[in-house]
Amino acid sequence: MTADVTDTPDTALGDEFSTLLVGIQRLVRRRLREGLTEPRLRGAQVELLRLVADSPGLRVSDAAAELCLAGNSVSTLVNQLVALGLLRREVDPADRRAALLHVTDEAVERLAAWRARRSALVGEVVAGLSAEERTALDAALPALRGVAVGLRARPETRPETTKPEKPEKPATKGRVRR
């Protein structure tokens, strides 16, 4: 009899880590949104802005690959951010069908303000931890980076889609169409 994979210590640790990470991310976003006067951005919009700010001139397809999102999803995000005045598209001189993405000055300001608020918020909470907890958190950072690298390196698997079988049509009475 083989052991159930879900009962391994590594799986339990991974589950607890994932649950905590999602909860922390949600709480940070919620706290950062408190008192904002400008329109709220969704997490995926912020991720795209940060990516483009770090890699100016990125193509939509490259952004999609980096964010592990479908190209049409990133195109939708781009359209939303362009409409908000936070992102601009330029025609790629090497391939006029492609667009190169750049953040606007307003986006740079918003990202800087958001990063400063996030650093202050999380820094305040970390400062409230004991010295041992802060040391443990610092020591865990390389392992957390390793988890991120490991997840990125995994091949993306998509479930096979099967078309549902069409029900047989009932026999028709009367004339048969030709």
Summarize the structure.
The protein is 58% helix and 10% strand. By secondary structure, it is mainly α.
Layout of helices and strands:
Elements: H1 9-33, H2 43-54, E1 58-59, H3 60-67, H4 71-83, E2 87-92, E3 95-103, H5 105-127, H6 131-153
Helix pairs in contact: 2-4, 3-4
Tags for this model:
globular; single chain; 178 residues; mainly alpha
Distance between the termini: 60 Å
* Percent in strands: 5-15%
Rg of Cα set:
24 Å
Number of strands: 3
Protein model, in words:
The mean pLDDT is 86. Helix 2 crosses helix 4 and helix 3 packs across helix 4 (71-83). It is globular, with a radius of gyration of 24 Å. It has a three-stranded antiparallel beta sheet. It contains six helices and three strands. The protein has helices spanning 9-33, 43-54, 60-67, 71-83, 105-127, 131-153; strands at residues 58-59, 87-92, 95-103. By secondary structure, it is mainly α. The relative contact order is 0.08. Strand 2 and strand 3 (95-103) form a beta hairpin.
